[in-house]
Amino acid sequence: MQLELSPADAEFRNRMREFFTTKVPQEIRDTVLEGRHLSSDQIVESQRVLNAEGLAVPHWPVEWGGQDWTDLQRHLWHEEMQRAGVPIPLAFNASMIGPVIAHFGTQEQKERFLPATANLDIWWSQGFSEPDAGSDLASLRTSAVRDGDDWVVNGQKTWTTLGQHGDWIFTLVRTDPEVKKQAGISMLLIDMTSPGVEVRPIELIDGGHEVNEVWFSDVRVPGDLLVGELNGGWTIAKFLLGNERVGVAPVGATKRALATLKTNAAAQLEDPLVRARVAELENDLLALELTALRVVAHSSDGEPHPASSVLKLRGTELQQSVSELALDLAGPASLASRAEDDSPQEGWARRAAPTYLNLRKASIYGGSNEIQRQIISRTILGL
Amino acid sequence: MQLELSPADAEFRNRMREFFTTKVPQEIRDTVLEGRHLSSDQIVESQRVLNAEGLAVPHWPVEWGGQDWTDLQRHLWHEEMQRAGVPIPLAFNASMIGPVIAHFGTQEQKERFLPATANLDIWWSQGFSEPDAGSDLASLRTSAVRDGDDWVVNGQKTWTTLGQHGDWIFTLVRTDPEVKKQAGISMLLIDMTSPGVEVRPIELIDGGHEVNEVWFSDVRVPGDLLVGELNGGWTIAKFLLGNERVGVAPVGATKRALATLKTNAAAQLEDPLVRARVAELENDLLALELTALRVVAHSSDGEPHPASSVLKLRGTELQQSVSELALDLAGPASLASRAEDDSPQEGWARRAAPTYLNLRKASIYGGSNEIQRQIISRTILGL
Amino acid sequence: MDFTYDDEQQALREAVRGLLASAYADHDARRTTVASDDGFDRALWGRLAEMGILGLPFSEADGGVGAGPVEIGIVCQELGRVLAPEPYLACVVHAGGLVAAVGSPEQKADLLGRLSSGEVLLAAADTSPGSRWSSHADGVRASVSGDLSTGSGQRAWTLDGVADPVMGGGAADILVVTAALPDGHGTGVFLVDASAAGVTAYAAADLTRAASVRFDGSAATPLGQPGRDLSASIATISDLTRIMGANQSLGVMQSQVRATTDYLKSRKQFGVTLNTFQALTFRAADMYVELELAHSMVDWATMMIAGGDREAVADAADRVGLQVSRSGRHVGQEAIQLHGGIGMTAEYAVGVGTAHLEVLDQWLGNGPHHLRRLSERVTDHDLVEALS
Amino acid sequence: MDFTYDDEQQALREAVRGLLASAYADHDARRTTVASDDGFDRALWGRLAEMGILGLPFSEADGGVGAGPVEIGIVCQELGRVLAPEPYLACVVHAGGLVAAVGSPEQKADLLGRLSSGEVLLAAADTSPGSRWSSHADGVRASVSGDLSTGSGQRAWTLDGVADPVMGGGAADILVVTAALPDGHGTGVFLVDASAAGVTAYAAADLTRAASVRFDGSAATPLGQPGRDLSASIATISDLTRIMGANQSLGVMQSQVRATTDYLKSRKQFGVTLNTFQALTFRAADMYVELELAHSMVDWATMMIAGGDREAVADAADRVGLQVSRSGRHVGQEAIQLHGGIGMTAEYAVGVGTAHLEVLDQWLGNGPHHLRRLSERVTDHDLVEALS
After folding, report:
1. At what angle do helices B26-33 and B251-265 cross, to 10 degrees?
2. Total H helices, total E strands in chain A
3. Is residue C388 part of a domain?
């Protein structure tokens, strides 16, 4: 056991820190650090800066732009991005469909999609959840029926994050309604400009538009856009959900948010009760970060380690707790959340309520905390 | 809606307060107020003082010593006792078997047992739980088999509180093993001096001896000690468990404990974090007390009211929280918990750890908090 | 001691509930209303005036109804149940309350009558950027032509500074402004015609409306006797508003618990309804516990007003404020979590209710604020007495 | 950066675990041992000496093994797993640590060698009734014949006052006592023969042993250079002991989570095993989360010792102290609750483990204490860095 980074890892971290803080546009980073809303152009611009340096998709296979790093290096890369306010490469591209195509795709699919996916030339959306298939994903009903070489897709997806910017969408569709529900699902890639695809915004309680419904009405999809085996979609879904060990918990970003909050709190930090809440959160975040480090440091070890569910569960709780503290510190100023920019109230205080409300999603989307507890109790504890 | 007590109720409360603080021996009350251990003699003495004044079993039928009070009066009686440090009349007698005999018993049983039960001439024990029948009480296995006019009882009861002082025990026994499990249960009264009854102490984690195992080996019980219908024991058990609406939550005693703790805390009360914990608990206790008042004030109203489960659940949580605060205030002095009385550490601090440990039972015994949540979600919310 | 409504109070509740049920039959109706320019329904406001609801707190002599706190609490609870965006708390309870507390007989008769009839809308401007629930104005300063110490003569008052947030300020005709008096004489209360100030309206997170108000030598009329420090009355009216806000929060929570329970019973996952999952039903039980505790404290604090003792009302406001803040956060968060994704959407009432709870809380005094005040007082008493 | 044990550390863990498994094969064995006069197993203590475990922290020159904090942490975790009542923390880590930190070379060679071999038992007397985790002695005062400021000559020291609780004090041969030096010169450390003090042993709630020690002109030998203020070293050794205590608590929690999980799988109610009830399995999941967070912090704090920086170690002690206090309370309470009645009994390890967690916590620094210290420092840094 030792705490110090090896000289090579320390050098690696410095290189990341140097790059992120000097090469990614300051304005983009400030937007992230201050908790303001990123435009899609900013997300694209940032990812391309990273990709040009080989830092957008380091966990992909080397031949497709990956870096063959250790888990610790990936962790450092991820933490330093958050610390510097660099937008994490778009998850739908970098963490989801990219690794899936690299693992399950045909050579043709790889060549066609992977470089454009890494560079965010294609903006991918995710088409998994449906109104009646959320935590119970396997009950999905969107159907794909063979018609010659094509598939004809009908149905509705929902909770499609940033789908309004999407060029393509990777979907789970039912290709065999006769068999056990997990067994009849396949993955199709769908061009969102195809006739019959319609994206409808869902307004959230923070007033933002970040999720959508996506409707498919007789959408024709060429047969070569099936990924992996026919009716093998469930395997892909499990691969995708189990793929992530690094960066599951938003540790760096939450630490950064708490540090910023201390600055914003100003004189309120003289209140012992405020100090105690901050101290408690800092400690909780340290424990979480160390747990993430244990996970990456353990990965060569055969011993079972606290899985990503612990990180996700606790990480989202802490993210939410920091937003609660921000709201309480903002106080009456938080009421001005939809005031114009010339408001006399400070920006952080005006963003406090929408951020608090928006982050309620953290414990719901991407596997709710109930699902995480179930994974822990079943998979880790064997209950 | 109005907050003031009616003149009659205010007068009633004063009368209770006057009696409890002047007629119940000071030493007994100090023992309670300081959280020390009551002897069985003190419990008996106190109850007899109350009974002489008609204040031991006010909720019984008037002909057996009851007072025909309103629920509010019973609440005031109960709160004033706790506030003054008067031991609550022994629950097994006053709240459990007394009302059962008064409701289900024969005239002969009433005459034989009720006066002695009210006066604690008979100390009753409860024989319900078994090693494999706790929350799932209906699976009990202790059997009673007819032999002439008698019953022959075999089996084991457990968690029998204060059973070491018991003269008699009221038991649920299986009288018909062939039917659905709830349907084959009866209630028998058993003289604990009968041959074949053995009481074995269970040591608890606080070092105290307050619960016992009670073993029955071919214990002969005369047939006239069956209460109510043969195989009607489950009805009695439900009557008994649903009987209590007043005094479910230990509000008065917990308030008193917190007030005492403030005195003990001395200079530590200058710490804003300590003050905040106290303020939070005082508020929580106020909300609980008001909820108890709403329950008693509502009882003539047809509207559903928060049932005793809310009071039990929250009341035990707060009781435990106060004990946590006491332990944290005691700090290192709490280590001296089994030191002799000449210890240089203060008594309250030495009692803090055993009390904390002992009160863990509050959320387990008498219907665990899981059972209470189940009652709320099923009975009140219809889930 | 009695925690039940009498027949008249029951009838009031039914009447208000009926009226609101027609205006806000479902959450879509609320969405339409908050999307309008005013952000609330002026027709409904008129009907509330006709029913006497706007005049409830004011004496009959002033054109009101002369009802008690329990009645006002009933109205606030009903408004909360449907997340009504009407500025009842801001305009009637808070601004109207200030007028009733410190206005001269003439001012009261004039303003409260017109307020009760729905003819004018008031808003209380008592908060400036950076201030936190204080009865001492610091962001708005009052100036007077002539010497304050000379009692006679007609003097002209003006205000300078910024008040923000001013709840209901965008629609108000007259602003009731707390301002620092010259030469450290304390805090006074002034009437300012909305047209004499720079009013910029905006929506809060729950889409109810507030405003930023800039005073730049704005002509002002002292409310009540000019030049007197009114901070004690300002504090008491804030306390009363806090308690009525807690009533409104209680209504929100009641709806959220009901909606969540209904959802668990009807929503299917993995082929069964959600109430099959014990981890979820137990959490619903905990929501119910919080709701009932809040309910008890709200009833108590509302009844405490009738006693009339300022310190007791302040204490009650802190206690119910802390309780409702804690319970509201618990219930609001769990309501969304147990609904899952749908709870995050603006088209569903449950998540908007969570926003509403937070707006009420941060507007009127949040949990840490009340806890701090209660903490300062823990050594003042032995026990907290529920009944006097 | 590496959070794994090397082969030697693994071997150490296996060896200690094996030895403890034979001594405390089940909870009955522990019950028998704590019921004995000493309250611990002297034979086991001898075997720990033979294995070099007692000498782990001390240099080879002083008769020890010269191992690092990770090794000592491993021993403490294993002791915690079986709730071993042996006074390793009190005697070796704390009292031995004080001797190693401030003793003269001769004192160290003498005492630490005999401690490592199991020949003498030490106990640290650093707490007086009413004092709370302070490195400044106030309940015991040192006096000296002759003038402290004159450096020469043989001076006779005596102690007066009461130390309580003194963990492991009943069995100790020599007491290592912190005492206020004359004339406000700070706090010194003294050796007192147990026979020269009035020692009254008692059991704590977990049945481990402590003592009340009265000094009444008791002859004392200064540890290290006489008359110097040693409070900084005293504080550092307390911090080290806190971190090792956290290792011990971690071991307790690991056993409690395992026992609870096993119980849920095997215990039947309503005809099914308890793991059928989702509300219970989710709570077990939360226990596991707390356990893992505590584990991470314990490993981190243990590694921080190697850096050797006093302030960093103090910070690590506060951080791990707060974490273990919170996690320990959560895990300890839930372990009993999920076991139900059986968890309340002295014959079952799980409830006794809860007692043990609290004793470790209140002895070495509880949650509010560490939180207060961390709160004072929140403005000293921007972020808390896990890796330097």
Report:
1. 80
2. 13, 8
3. no
Pick from D306, D307, D379: CB nearest A269: D379
Mean pLDDT of A174-181: 94
Which chains lie within 8 Å of chain B at 3 or more CB pairs, if any? A, C, D
Residue A225 and residue A279 in one domain: no
Would D102 be classed as within a structural domain?
Answer: yes
Task: Look up the domain containing D11 and give its range.
Answer: 7-116
Is A198 within a domain?
Answer: yes
Same-domain pairing of B256 and B376: yes
Neighbours of chain A (3+ CB pairs under 8 A): B, C, D
Which residue in C has a C-alpha nearest to residue A317's C-alpha?
C333
Q: CB pairs below 8 Å between A and B: how many?
A: 6
| Domain, as residue range, for B344 | 248-381
- Are A14 and A129 members of one domain? no
ipTM score assigned to the predicted complex: 0.96
Q: Residue A304's pLDDT is what?
A: 40
How many structural domains are present in chain B?
3
CATH of the domain at B321: 1.20.140.10
Strand partners, A146: A151
Of the candidate ranges B107-111, B376-380, C196-200, C354-358, the one whose mean pLDDT is the lowest: B376-380
Size of interface B-C (CB pairs under 8 A): 151
Residue pair D127/B332 in contact by the 8 Å Cβ criterion? yes
- Rounded to whole angstroms, the Cα distance separating D19 from B69 reads 66
Interface membership of D264 toward A (CB under 8 Å): yes
Put simply, the chain B residues between 253 and 312 with a CB less than 8 A from any chain A CB are: 272-273, 276
Helix, strand, coil % in chain D, rounded to nearest 5: 55, 15, 30
Task: Identify the active-site residue in A244, A282, A317, A324.
Answer: A244
Query: What Cα–Cα distance (Å) separates residue A131 from each residue in A173, A175, B128, C269?
Result: 14, 19, 49, 11
Give the global pTM.
0.96
**Does residue B240 register a pLDDT over 90?**
no
User: Which of C181, C204, C229 corresponds to the end of one domain?
Assistant: C229
Task: Answer yes or no: are the C-beta atoms of D164 and D212 closer than 8 Å.
Answer: yes
pLDDT at A300: 47
Min distance D277 CA to chain C CA atoms (Å) = 7
CB A156 within 8 A of CB A215: yes
% of chain A with per-residue pLDDT over 90: 86
Of D229, D253, D268, which residue sits at a domain end?
A: D229
Residue C93, in any domain of the structure: yes
**Torsion sign over Cα A7, A12, A13, A15:** positive
Q: Are residues D222 and D348 in the same domain?
A: no
* Residues C244 and C216 reside in one and the same domain: no
Tell me, what's the pLDDT at A242?
67
What does the pLDDT look like over B321-358, one tens digit per residue? 999 999 999 999 999 999 999 999 999 999 999 999 99
B368 neighbourhood in chain D, CB within 8 Å: 337, 340
Q: What is the rounded CA–CA span in Å between residue A252 and residue A293?
A: 12
- Does one domain contain both B253 and B357? yes
Using 50, 70 and 90 to split pLDDT, how confident is the model at B300? Answer: very low
Q: Are D324 and D349 found together in one domain?
A: yes
Q: Which residues of B are catalytic?
A: 244
Whether D90 is covered by a domain: the verdict is yes
Asked if D341 reaches chain B (Cβ–Cβ under 8 Å), the answer is yes
A273 chain-B contacts, CB cut-off 8 A: 272-273, 276
pLDDT at residue C150 is higher than 60 = no
Do C273 and C320 lie in one domain? The reply is yes
pLDDT at A303: 42
Measured between beta carbons, the chain C residues lying within 8 angstroms of D278 are: 277-279
3-state SS, residue D136: coil
- Tell me: do B272 and B331 sit in the same domain: yes
> Does C39 have pLDDT greater than 60?
yes
Q: How many CB atoms lie within 10 A of CB B381?
A: 20
Contact A146/C at CB under 8 A: no
Q: In this structure, are D197 and D252 located in the same domain?
A: no
Which residues from C are below 8 Å from B83, CB to CB?
A: 383
Tokens representing B378? 């099923």
